[in-house]
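User: Teach me something about this protein's shape.
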Amino acid sequence: MWKGRFKKATADSVKDFTESISFDWRLYKQDIQGSVAHVTMLAEAGIVSKLDRDKIIKGLREIQGELAKGTFKFDPALEDIHMNIEAALIEKIGDTGAKLHTARSRNDQIALDLRLFVRGEVESIRQKVRLLQKSLVGFARRHAKVLIPGYTHLQRAQPVPIAHHMLAYVEMLDRDYERLSDSYRRVDVMPLGSGALGGSTLPIRRELVAEFLDFPKMTQNSMDAVSDRDFILELLFDCALIGLHCSRLSEDIVLWASTEFGLIDIEDAYCTGSSLMPQKKNPDLAELSRGKTGRLFGNLFSLLTTLKGLPLTYNRDMQEDKEPLFDSVDTTKAVLQILAEMIDHTSVRAPRAAEMVVDPLLLATDVTDYLVRKGVPFRQAHEIVGKAVKHSETKKKAASQTHRRGVEKIFASVRIRHQGCVRFG
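Assistant: First, the predicted structure itself:
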């Protein structure tokens, strides 16, 4: 594609190092979609004939069919998906195919392809977020009457419905959904027509391309348009935060599935065993979901680091944007999907939950509130209940067995006159 400028052919080692077709082939649908819109605009603007337009579009559709069937032959020497498709088009329809790249650079071509891809992936991930939310809501409905200890610092705190616990993740995921929806607005901008960096002197009509591809807005600065990858960074951040939330959910599942908690049972089909210990039933799906969060964080920081020192406009470093993008969207969708399936096949061991929640110390805050309603200042009520708990520990009795004499001493030590016997439980 640049043989007019160079006397020597590109070295094989350089071809191997610079190729991206091994991963950017995934953009073929978006590349053909953008090319069809571009050549349609060229015809409308009178830059190419309608006959040439029809031949190019027919050739592109045939190539798309070959790519979809897996019969297309990629040439790594052509570097990327854009040049592979263009070369195949020229081979298929002759010199007419060489007109496709009129008024277009690979710089604005890839900017368009990436926006089309990210736009679709944002919607796909949103659907997966909703899928996990529905699974969590279903779990909450199935176990609406089950109480468990709520925890702070991983210490038992207050009794809560397990449904309330799981619905906390629905709220987190709802914020994730909103973030994805918000970032969609910044993805949904049409960059084609920016050329390599300075636009085109040909009478192109960018608004037609935007209309054909259903973009509500067009980029305003051609230099920014070809070098902007903010929309990818936003999606990678959204994926990282979704991963963080899924990791916290996974940690709860791992704890609850342990013998020490024994609170939930995950169906065998969604667990794994041990190659050595026959008794093991491991919550590996939750552990892997937790572990993959590190990859999502890494992809975000990788691209942030790549972009941080680049001068305007396009630099070849930006080829490194695709693998983190592809990996993050694939990983995020896979995690959301498998967690939804696993939660659909997870049940609570109600007897164990009842055993855990019967601890009277879980009601210490309620006793404090009771004293406040009786007129005891909160700080003094807090001290009274704390001393009652300590008294029960010293006497090696349950807090519910702290009777009148012990309570009288506690009230006296705080200089509060008691009204009747206060009992825990």
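Now, about its shape. The radius of gyration is 31 Å. The chain is about 60% helix and 5% strand. If you'd like, I can walk through any region in more detail.
User: That's plenty for now, thanks!
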